[in-house]
Amino acid sequence: MNEDSGNYIIRKMRISFALLMTLLALADAGVRYQITTSWNGGLSGTFFVKPSQETNGWEFSVTFNKQVTMEIWDAVIKNLATATTFNLDNQSYNPKLSPTVETGIAFVLRYTGDVVPTFTFNQGTFGSSTPAITVAPTTTKPKTTTKATTKAATTTSATTVCNTKSKYPYTEVIQKSILFYHAQRSGKLPASTKQKVPWRSDSALNDGKDKGIDLTGGWYDAGDRVKFNFPMAHSAVVLGWGILEFRDAYESCGLLSDALDEVRWATDYLLKCWRGNELYVQVGDGHIDHNYWGRPEEMTMSRPSFSVTPSKPGSDVAGDTSSALAIASILFKTKDPAYSATLLKAAEEVFRFGDQYRGKYSDSVPAAAEFYGSSKFVDELAQAAAFLNMATGDSTYLNKAKQLYTQGNLGSTPWAYSWDDKDAAVQVLLYKLTKEAGYKTAVESFMKAFMPGGSVSYTPKGLAYRDKWGALRYAANTALLGLIAAKDGVQQTSFVNWARSQIHYMLGDTGRSFVVGFGVNPPNAPHHASSSCPPCNWSQGSSCPVCGWQHLSAAGPNPSVLYGALVGGPDQSDNFVNNRDDYILNEVTTDYNAGFQSALAGLQYFIGKV
Questions:
Q1: Residue 108 in contact with residue 150, Cβ under 8 Å?
Q2: Rounded to an integer, what distance in angstroms lies between the CA atom of residue 268 and that of residue 263?
Q3: Residue ranges in the chain whose pLDDT is less than 50
Q4: pLDDT (0 to 100) of residue 5
Q5: Bridge partners of residue 104, in order along the sequence
Q6: CA nearest to 105, candidates 5, 11, 21, 200
Q7: Residue 76 contacts residue 88 (beta carbons within 8 Å)
Q8: What is the model's pLDDT at position 315?
Q9: In what order do the strands lie in the sheet with 103-110?
Q10: In the prediction, which pLDDT does 387 show?
């Protein structure tokens, strides 16, 4: 939508806006807006701000002429001065606004009635046009901590200043990716999640009751509502590993607490799934679930629970579960020692269970085979042993990982790094832990297969195109491994530059973004049932508009913006169409975002280094 179109829609809807004044240190700022979606009782959009000089911290207050709910991700809501006045401050990662780059500030408004609210700033009220901006100069201090907000309860001391000198705002995308995981949450949601994603609420509160246990929590896998633990645990591994490797990037930019909170959401659920000598690995039946298009809060279908046991083994999912718990035990060792100890104890138990009773989980759980069938399990066990060595310092685990590496022939060049294939991750881990040349050679061979001149083909605009299903996912996962290897000194310049090229492709280098709610011409109709439904204001307890199969094929953007979701991606010729029905190009999943988010953290870490 161009600016003229935006003005027409605003006149048509009788909307009177005042543009967000992020520029209290400026006098001649350029501001434009783009409405993403509008509906009866709400709208979403982005303000694009380009100051005339660099800011170093900013704040403002805004008053509405009626009560509203406002969501804004790139500003901190410090407090509500009144029922209609919001006091806003910059996030810890964005005190500086550049005069050479437009900064996007996404927002959502929700209100009752047909009359659209007007914004009033302490400098005045704007009308339906965009007047010249005249504000009193204000000097503010740069922020190095994240204040308590309606977005999350975060208090993070930055060890270094957040470096924002990059082509794209990596921290903004990381933050929105975390929001995507919030939107995927199942179970009893905390107030912070409901504030961040008001179109979501409590769901699947009876999970596990068919077995007499509590299996609530975790993430829904994709646009559906099944909890597949194999890809879920993998996603938790990749997110946690990214935090482990690039913690400084998260911490300096004020994102560490939010990132850890999301990992804990997954590991809290995985702990529930371990029952001593039985591991629950799935809740919900894919075939039953896929007969329903609607909100998870309103689903009534049967949600059976599936497990692996000594007689029906699942070494692969046990390995990934162990890895996720082991990584989290490291991440929470200082923050929450008791929780860390619980995680590590379970990680070791689950590993022994998976190693002793060997087999593929999808052979034991046919309900998983069609959706997330496993090809082998040695790689997951080797990966878990490596992470347990990191968590415990026990050389027995390292020796076990090396033994499994040899037994499973994990040194050959893998096809890809994904929820089903961990060979490349094991190569990177074993080089990190041993610095042995053989593992380094394996890492280099894998990376070179994806880089120009390797066996993986490229689209005309530069995406390493491994497969049509989740094309961006494979490139992002490989970028992450390259960045981790680079941090350990393996071909640092070439690996970082290649990773940057792939992630920048996803952020907009082709002229469009592939991240919902971010950048230029982003995807707006992901194959995601809940966000395709008419918005429902759960907090007000009102009845929700009907949602059903008609919303799968409905024209136009999803009414609720699934911020931060990475879609499957383009075809091999770089073509992409916003089409909710096209679940190849427009699918979103937790594992798509995991490698992508961690790679973003890696690029943030390498700003100024490479």
A1: no
A2: 9
A3: 1-30, 122-159
A4: 41
A5: 48
A6: 21
A7: yes
A8: 98
A9: 30-39, 42-50, 103-110, 69-72
A10: 98
User: Judging by beta carbons within 10 Å of its beta carbon (0-12, 13-18, 19+), is residue 320 exposed, middle or buried?
Assistant: buried
The C-alpha atoms of residue 482 and residue 609 are separated, in whole angstroms, by 15
Quote the pLDDT of residue 8: 35
Q: Torsions phi, psi of 106, nearest 5?
A: -80, 145
Is residue 385 a contact partner of residue 404, using CB atoms and an 8 Å limit? yes
**Crossing angle (nearest 10°) for helices 423-434 and 378-392:** 30
Q: Return all residues near 412 (Cβ < 8 A) that are at least 6 apart.
A: 423, 442
CA distances from 311 to 241, 279, 315, 357 (A): 32, 12, 12, 8
CA distance 128 to 35: 13
Handedness of CA 494, 174, 200, 550 (dihedral sign): negative
Residues near 387 by Cβ (< 8 Å), separated by ≥ 6? 237, 322, 323, 326, 327, 347, 429
Total residues belonging to the chain: 610
Structural contact between residues 235 and 311, judged by C-beta atoms closer than 8 angstroms: no
Per-residue model confidence (pLDDT) at position 35: 57
* DSSP string over 547-569: --GGGTS-SSS-SS--TTPBP--
DSSP secondary structure of 432-489: HHH--HHHHHHHHHHHHHHSTTSSSEE-TTS-EE--STTHHHHHHHHHHHHHHHHHTT
487-525 in b/e form (b: 16+ CB < 10 A) is beebbbebbbebbbbbbbbbbbbbebbbbbbbbeebbbb
**Residue linked to tokens 């679930």:** 289
CA 583 to chain centre: 19
In this structure, what is the dihedral angle of CA atoms 6, 7, 9, 14, given to the nearest 10 degrees?
140
pLDDT value of position 148: 30
Dist. CA 46–CA 49, nearest whole Å = 10
Q: Which residues pair with 33 in a beta bridge?
A: 47
Q: Show the tokens assigned to 374.
A: 């496993």
Q: At what angle do helices 590-606 and 492-504 cross, to 10 degrees?
A: 130
Residue 299, Cβ density class (10 Å: 0-12 exposed, 13-18 middle, ≥19 buried) = middle
Phi, psi of 112 (to 5 degrees): -105, 155
- Residue 84's CB is within 10 A of a number of other CB atoms, namely 16
**Do the strands 42-50 and 124-125 form a parallel or antiparallel pair, or are they unpaired?**
unpaired
Cα gap 3→406, rounded to integer Å: 60
Cα separations (Å) of 395 from 353, 407, 433, 460? Answer: 19, 18, 10, 47
Q: How many helices (H) and strands (E) does the chain have?
A: 19, 14
